[in-house]
Amino acid sequence: MKILYIAEIVGKAGVFAVKQGLPELKKRKRVDFVVANADGATGGGGLGRNHAAYLHKLGVHTLTLGECAFYKKDLVENIDKMPYVLRPGNLNIEAPGYGSYIYKLDVAKIVVAVIIGQSGFSRMHGDNPAARLPSLLERLHKETPIVIVDFHTGATAEKRAFFAVADGLCAAVIGSHTRVQTADEAVSPKGTAVITDAGRTGSVDSVGGADAQTCIQEYLTGIPDWTKETWARLELQGVLLDVDKNGKALSIERVRLPIAGGRDHEGQNL
Question: How many CA atoms does the CB half-sphere of 101 hold within 13 Å?
Fold first, then answer.
């Protein structure tokens, strides 16, 4: 089974990159299933209901979220009815929505789960990821051996430790949140594919998808402002997984697809 994970979609530029690049990737790579992190798809932080529905219509089977999962009220009010949108699964039981879900395909069943880490988040706090993982996987493996985990946290050390905990227990653990693609993709001898961060989908010449000059002003003034997007040099980033019927990863390949339609720093079309 070929599984495409699209790295964090940031703003309208990221949504545009998915629209333009996903059909080509699905055809060229013979993709069976598409996962996309959409934690910054609407305005750079969070996911609105309309964007969720639109990305799903474009061919994304499941959308994963992180600490921005509940930023958009219209999504929160409807998330219980949207099983293709997943918030972190290690939250309090009172949290709305799904933390994992079983998707039935013609070729097999696949489970996607989201776990949030404990490094650097002030507005959302999850249970200890390493402590929660064994019971979660025990439940999910009763349905299918093919389990993909999106591990959303900022600290590289926490990600690497979690990879060791998950080794051999799931097909892949894909790191997200930092919006910078790392070059450490690997498949362990036990058959688990990992990467510290799959990157971002949207503007490459930016600060996490946001306008660099605006972010510089934030550093200088201390006033947060991630509202100004940039379209400079667009890419669809992520990873392509090849997973067997026993839930073991055969390969992991980084994806960086340039997208026409971006603009340079002066606003000129590329």
Answer: 21
In a domain, 22, yes or no: yes
What is the rounded average pLDDT of the residues 104-126?
91
Q: Give tens-digit pLDDT for 2-24.
A: 999 999 999 999 999 999 999 99
pLDDT above 50 (res 204): yes
Q: Give the CATH number for residue 200.
A: 3.60.21.10
CB neighbours of 36 closer than 8 A, spacing ≥ 6? 5, 6, 9, 18, 55, 60, 62, 63, 64, 201, 238
Q: Give dist(CA 267, CA 24) in Å, integer.
A: 26
Q: Within a domain: residue 264?
A: no
CB 110 within 8 A of CB 84: no
pLDDT interval class at 263 (50, 70, 90): low
Nearest to 90 by CA among 122, 126, 63: 126
According to DSSP H, which parts of 128-241 are helical? 129-140, 156-166, 212-221
Q: Phi and psi for 47 in degrees, rounded to 5?
A: -135, 120
Under 8 Å between Cβ of 51 and 38: yes
Question: Cα–Cα distance between 171 and 247 in angstroms, integer?
Answer: 5
Could you report the per-residue pLDDT of 57-88, keeping only the tens digit for each?
A: 999 999 999 999 999 999 999 999 999 999 99
Domain region containing 68: 2-259
Confidence of residue 266 (pLDDT cuts 50, 70, 90): very low
